[in-house]
Amino acid sequence: MALSSNMEFFLDSFGQNFPAENNGTLDCISIALSCAFNRQGTLLAVGCNDGRICIWDFTTRSVAKIISGHVHPVSSLSWSRNGQRLASSSTDGKVCVWETLTGEIVWHFNFSVVIMRVQCHPRNMDQYLILPFKQMGIVLTIGRKSFDRLRGEDGADDYHTCVTYSRRGDFILTGNQKGRIVVIRSDNVSTIQSSFQIVTQAQTGIPIRTLEVSRRGENMVVNAGDKVIRIYKIADVLQGHGHTEIEPSQRLQDLVNKNVWKKVFFSGDGEYVCAGSSRTHQLYIWENFTGTLVKILTGTKGETLMDAAWHPIRPIIVSVSGGIVSIWSQTHVENWSAFTPDFRELDENVEYEERESEFDMEDEDKSVTMEVDEQDENDDVDVVTLEKNAAYCSSDEEEDDPTAVLFIPVIPEIEEPEMDNWLADVSSGTAASIASGSGKGGKGGGEAKRPKTKKDPAAQPGQAKRSRLDSESAGSKRAPRPH
């Protein structure tokens, strides 16, 4: 009985790993259109309608930096692996790369068409993947005068509808309007690693809207035009050749409303798949391994979802709809109940029955196997060595990056100081100022005008003698102190 109660307690506390309710909004400076988390989830970049980029400190829910570099709406955002750079694209065809700490531009290029997506290489922050509207994808490296254009399989009339990097950036996965997925090597864009066709009931091909790879790189989710979400194993995708048909591990869809999906992405641990409707502000969450719909998050009625992102570590989703950034998190209910020594929850007072050997120095009822497995109290515990955080390190051989930008220091805006006025205190003979700062120089920052000081008595002996006599005469006239 106690074991079953303990299992129920732990399942209720730690079993739910997805958001369940709205936890407030972020009031941006303008109409929000796109969003992206950095790798650690400490910073959130939001692209606005007026071309500005607002970087939020997600821990304190405050604005850390505002970058103004675009004139038209920001269409896509992407962080580098260490968070030192932020890439952005706008609808006027401008692609920019920014320094996160300073907000200065590192590189920019103007294309003649609308840029649908920009993505930083997972391992090289000087290489970027760009998708122009109704054109083939482009691989661009900072420092090179030319860029590499990706190739397709179906002739010159074909174009890419979505592109994305693999987890480590070794491959580039592309999808076209005919339902074909092509995997290209990133070190040599002319080499095709594999390709396959999406299996559909209709004979004609369907366009692929989005492609996303899980954070751990094991699965890939495909959002196609037939309103069905397909999940593939990356190992199976890399082995496809020619006209090979690969069966997806999961098929997810809304059988009731027949929703067309605007955005599809994985959770940080890859256990859940979230899809946002293109008609309403609704987020559907499925379990990846079973394909079970576990939650539907509904926002404000009448709004349309523009973008969404899952926090890399925590069960939090950020969605952009109606120009406002909404935050979805878990439901936290305060529980003031008590627990028994075996962690069984109590709703009311219960008389506790003490065991016979509970407070004995040596427990006679304890088994021999427990004594063998018991850890020695004299063993040294290592409290110095830092263990690798598996959530931050997506590769087994890598350590935490010491150069990663986790937070942006906020520089306070100091107002211009007013003109200082020095006032002479007649009673004390000292000078006081109303406020600290510069004096007559004011804005120039010159030296403050100080009150005149008394001359050195050593320079004028006669004057010093008179002042000494005056002080002695004044001291003789003083009234004696009462005893």
TrEMBL record:
Subcellular localization: Nucleus
InterPro entries xrefs: RBBP5/Swd1, WD40/YVTN_repeat-like_dom_sf, WD40_repeat_dom_sf, WD40_rpt
Keyword annotations: Nucleus, Repeat, WD repeat
Main location: nucleus
Top-level taxon in the UniProt lineage: Eukaryota
Biased composition (Basic and acidic residues): 446-457
UniProt keyword annotation of Protease present: no
Region (Disordered): 430-483
Any one Gene Ontology cellular component term annotated for this protein: Set1C/COMPASS complex
WD repeats: 36-66, 67-108
Protein known as: Retinoblastoma-binding protein 5-like protein
Lineage: Eukaryota, Metazoa, Ecdysozoa, Tardigrada, Eutardigrada
